[in-house]
Amino acid sequence: MRMNETWQRCQEFHGHSCPGLATGCRAAEAACDHLGIEMEKSKDEELVCIAETDACGVDAIQCLLSCTLGKGNMILRLTGKHAFSFHDRRTGKSVRIVSKHHDGSLSREELTDFILNGPVNEVFEFKETTAGIPEKARIFRSGICACCHESVREDLLRIQDGNTVCLDCFKPYPGRWNRKAD
C-alpha cells in the first residue's frame, strides 16, 4: 500500500500526526480510487475539493492533491462535518466522502491507525454530491478602501457614506428594526 509514503508526506506538511490529518489523507486516497484518477497534484483546477471542515484533514488534501484556497480548487463550506466532496472537471465525476463517527473507545494512536489502515467502508460513507461542480475561480479587480487606503478585492468592498470601504472599516447599520423597544 502506498499509504506509508503518503502518510509521511502529510505529517511533514502538517507538522504532527493526528486522527484529523489521517482522515484527510485517507479521504484523498479514497477520492482518487472512486474517481478513477492517480494520486497527483492538481496543476490547475481539474480536481476540486469542497471541505466541510477547516480542521487538520484539509492540510492532507492540500499536500497530496494540491487543492488549495489560493488556486481556488479548495472551497470551504463549513458545516462542522468531516466531509469532503471531490469533483473531477475532466470527467464530471464526483463523490462526497463523510467520516464515520467513532465511539471514542480507541486511543488517539489507535484511531489514527484505524483511519489509515481499516476497511475504507468502515472509515467513510460514500455519497453522491448534492451540488454541481463549482465554477472556476474568478479573478477580480481591486479597489482602494477610502478609510484605511488598503487594496481590496472589488466584490468585498462596501459602500458607506458614498465611499467604497473594506469589510474591516465598514460599520454595519442594524437599523431600527433590530433595536430593542425603549
Question: What report would you give on this structure?
Answer:
Helix 1 crosses helix 2 (19-35), helix 2 (19-35) packs across helix 3 and helix 2 packs parallel to helix 4 (108-117). Strands 2-1-3-4-5 form a 5-stranded mixed beta sheet. Strands 6-7 form a two-stranded antiparallel ribbon. A two-stranded antiparallel ribbon has the order 8-9. It is built from 5 helices and 9 strands. The protein has helices at residues 3-14, 19-35, 57-65, 108-117, 120-123; strands spanning 47-51, 74-76, 83-88, 94-99, 124-127, 142-144, 151-153, 158-160, 163-165.
Fold topology:
Elements lengths: L2 H12 L4 H17 L11 E5 L5 H9 L8 E3 L6 E6 L5 E6 L8 H10 L2 H4 E4 L14 E3 L6 E3 L4 E3 L2 E3 L17
Parallel strand pairs: 1-2
Antiparallel strand pairs: 1-3, 3-4, 4-5, 6-7, 8-9
Helix pairs in contact: 1-2, 1-3, 2-3, 2-4
What is the SS-derived class? alpha+beta
* Biggest beta-sheet profile: 5 strands, mixed
Query: Strand fraction band?
Result: 15-25%
Element order, helices and strands? HHEHEEEHHEEEEE
Number of helices: 5
Task: Give the mean pLDDT.
Answer: 90
Number of strand segments: 9
What is the strand arrangement across the widest sheet? 2-1-3-4-5
What is the percent of helical residues? 25-40%
Gyration radius (Cα, Å) is: 20 Å
Distance between the termini: 68 Å
Low-confidence stretches: none
Overall body shape:
elongated
